[in-house]
Write a structure and sequence with these properties.
Length: about 100
């Protein structure tokens, strides 16, 4: 089945992935590689049906229409623009989400 959406990851989200890898790799580089690989696989699933992911509760406060994909303790925050899924951030679920996290995207 061909992908219906193109998934793009912002430089900020790429930096988030590096930060996550660095954090996990402090204890076990192999686990860091495995986690990032599985996270990437989850993100790739957004090519086919990103609308399955819920809108985030913070949309009411921020005036946005972002969605999130949960994997482990991390939230992949994204928006859908036409036939493109734009990955904005990948953050730990315990982290507070506010509009300041998205200023450069």
């Amino acid at each position: 089945m061909p992908a219906l959406f193109k998934v793009e990851i912002t430089p900020t989200a790429e930096a988030d992935v590096t930060e996550i890898w660095d954090y996990i790799a402090q204890d076990n580089p192999g686990n860091a590689e495995a986690f990032i690989s599985r996270l990437s696989e989850q993100i790739d699933t957004l090519e086919n049906f990103p609308e399955r992911c819920p809108l985030i509760a913070e949309n009411r406060i921020m005036g946005t229409s972002y969605r999130h994909l949960i994997y482990g303790h991390y939230r992949t925050i994204f928006r859908i623009v036409g036939d493109c899924v734009i990955i904005l951030r990948i953050i730990h679920g315990a982290r507070l989400l506010d509009s300041g996290l998205f200023e450069s995207d």
